[in-house]
Design a protein that fits this description.
heterodimer; A: 256 residues; six-stranded antiparallel beta barrel; 6 helices; B: alpha/beta; four-stranded antiparallel sheet; 19% strand
Chain lengths: 256, 303
């Protein structure tokens, strides 16, 4: 694992939806090596623990990364209060990213809520060969749909209440999509229930699937072992760690 | 530049700063940021005779000025440690402190016995982990059992033996005296304080284990007090830990009587904490025209 720690400048801040923020951060040495699916461990002044936030997009040319996060508590609220030109302390890039196949392959990227951001960098790799299935509770929570559009991906937007896109869950949209055409790989990030449904469909259609998991973290680098998640390898159950062994896992290895 | 070297229970450490067990894995994870040779030593992840999976997640919760953890001694077992980690650490020009634990005295004895003959510099016998149901803290809260387990391990190892004490006791000085009588060469303190955090919306504890060990700046004054009390009660050296985050904390801990200082939770917030503390110690000694760090150990002047 190659990573670095430092204070980096927020060069752009946007409020994407209620309680959802988008920071572009100038950090050339991180952008140089960051991969889709990896995360940044962000220090917030006044709080004991860093917050792991997935990397939404990497711009190697401009030496920036984008992180998109939701206010979930006091810590992320304080982070959201940071403004452009503020320096924030991050350790990145951390964890293992998604396995990217040849960009001519057909990929389906699926995100639920705040699980959508890490899918942008994946969709950027496949562009028109990507189908982005993104789901939100309601129209006012929708984020990043235009990013997927501008990348040329086929976007299937779902909301639980039908206020935007098609009404229903991403799993329903995925089932519909797979009835029409197969895919070479599925990538997913979101709530466990959603991931469970996706993994079942991936198994049914025998499609390779990678999922990104989330867990409360300490060190972020694999030293403290707090972010345990149940996995199975060679038929044997064991606790892997989201920060070092993940956050991306082969769907056949995870126990949700 | 002052002399930061300390002799601790017969082992020379180039400086007194040691990442604490459980916070630093087996060292590899932080090597991306700085060479391990800059550290006085490393107290490795608590290791048991057999591999352990530890407790279910969530295993961590944030608290005011601290954190709770309930990892529950997840580790690959002593044989894996000796085969994969010790040879690697032995090339890093730093002292290896093997932190060991067990559910029974026999397990601890066998674990210590297997370490004999390896490149490990010192054993830290953990009789104070609050996150395991059997063993762990059970040995460390009673003078008789603390002395008995220390004696049993003492009998099978020629390595310097340090015993890690629990703060979750009525009198930590009595426990310290008991392990000294049992043949310990040193004591380390404090392990975490047992704590709990509840989500007021779900009404469930954050930790799946319900309770866990509190560490971080919140426990620092408790640790300083206990180090001071123990250092004045035993003749063996004391390794101080518990909420040490800055070089000022390290100086305070040493003035209280610690000859070695371990850094735990601060690493999660500031991975470079050990480096910053070593630099700060140097500066403090230079600024105060103190040539040898040993000259500050136990030099608090109580009222």
């Amino acid at each position: 694992m190659k990573y670095t720690q430092g204070n980096y400048r927020i060069v752009k801040k946007e409020n994407l939806a209620k309680n959802c923020y988008d920071f572009t951060i100038a950090c050339p040495e991180i952008a140089e090596i960051a991969q889709a699916g990896q995360f940044a461990h962000v220090k917030i002044n006044g709080f004991s623990l860093r917050r792991p936030i997935s990397i939404c997009e990497v711009d190697k040319e401009n030496g920036t990364i984008r992180i998109v996060f939701e206010i979930r508590g006091e810590g992320t609220k304080a982070l959201a209060d940071c403004n452009e030109n503020t320096l924030i302390d991050i350790i990145a890039p951390l964890g293992n990213g998604f396995t990217l196949l040849d960009s001519s392959k057909k990929a389906i990227v699926i995100g639920g809520g705040i699980g959508v951001p890490p899918m942008v960098e994946v969709a950027k790799h496949y562009r028109k060969n990507a189908t982005a299935i993104i789901g939100f509770r309601s129209a006012n929570a929708v984020i990043l749909n235009e990013d997927f559009d501008s990348l040329g991906a086929n976007v299937m937007l779902c909301t639980d209440d039908g206020t935007m896109g098609q009404k229903g869950y991403v799993t329903t949209a995925l089932a519909t999509r797979l009835e029409q055409e197969t895919a070479d790989i599925i990538y997913a990030c979101g709530p466990h229930l959603m991931l469970k449904g996706i993994i079942e469909l991936a198994n049914k259609y025998n499609i390779r699937c990678e999922v990104s998991l989330e867990e409360r973290m300490g060190c972020g680098v694999g030293a403290c072992l707090v972010c345990a998640c149940k996995t199975v390898k060679d038929g044997k159950e064991y606790f892997a760690h989201v920060c070092k062994d993940g956050p991306v896992f082969d769907s056949k290895e995870v126990i949700l | 530049m002052a002399n930061l070297s300390v002799n601790f229970a017969g082992v020379t450490f180039k400086n007194p700063i040691v990442p604490a067990s459980g916070a630093f894995g087996f060292g590899r994870e932080y090597e991306e940021l700085y060479p391990l040779s800059t550290l006085g030593g490393i107290s490795t992840k608590g290791t048991t005779l057999e591999p352990r999976n530890g407790n279910p997640a969530p295993r961590i919760a944030e608290t005011p000025s601290g954190m709770l953890n309930s990892v529950g001694l997840q580790n690959p077992g002593i044989d894996s440690f000796l085969e994969h980690e010790v040879p690697y650490l032995a090339t890093k020009d730093t002292r290896i402190i093997a932190n060991i634990a067990g559910s029974t005295i026999e397990d601890c004895v066998e674990t210590a016995r297997r370490i004999e003959g390896s490149a490990v510099d010192m054993i830290e016998l953990n009789i104070s982990c609050p996150n395991v149901k059997e063993g762990g803290v059970a040995f460390g809260v009673n003078c008789n059992s603390a002395q008995t387990i220390t004696e049993a391990v003492r009998n099978v190892t020629t390595k310097p033996l340090m015993v890690k004490l629990s703060p979750n006791v009525t009198s930590i000085t009595d426990i310290a005296k008991a392990v000294e009588a049992g043949g310990a060469d040193a004591v380390s303190l404090i392990n975490t304080l047992l704590g709990m955090k509840i989500d007021i919306n779900t009404r469930r504890p954050i930790l799946r284990n319900n309770v866990g060990g509190l560490s971080g700046p919140a426990v620092f004054p408790v640790a300083v007090r206990m180090v001071w009390q123990v250092a004045n009660s035993v003749s063996i050296p004391v390794c101080g830990m518990g909420g040490v985050s800055t070089w000022k904390d390290a100086v305070e801990m040493m003035l209280a009587g610690a000859s070695l200082v371990q850094i735990g939770a601060a690493l999660f917030d500031t991975p470079f904490a050990p480096m910053k503390i070593i630099d700060g110690l140097n500066q403090y000694l230079d600024d105060n025209k103190i040539e040898n760090i040993n000259d500050i150990i136990g030099k608090v002047q109580p009222w």
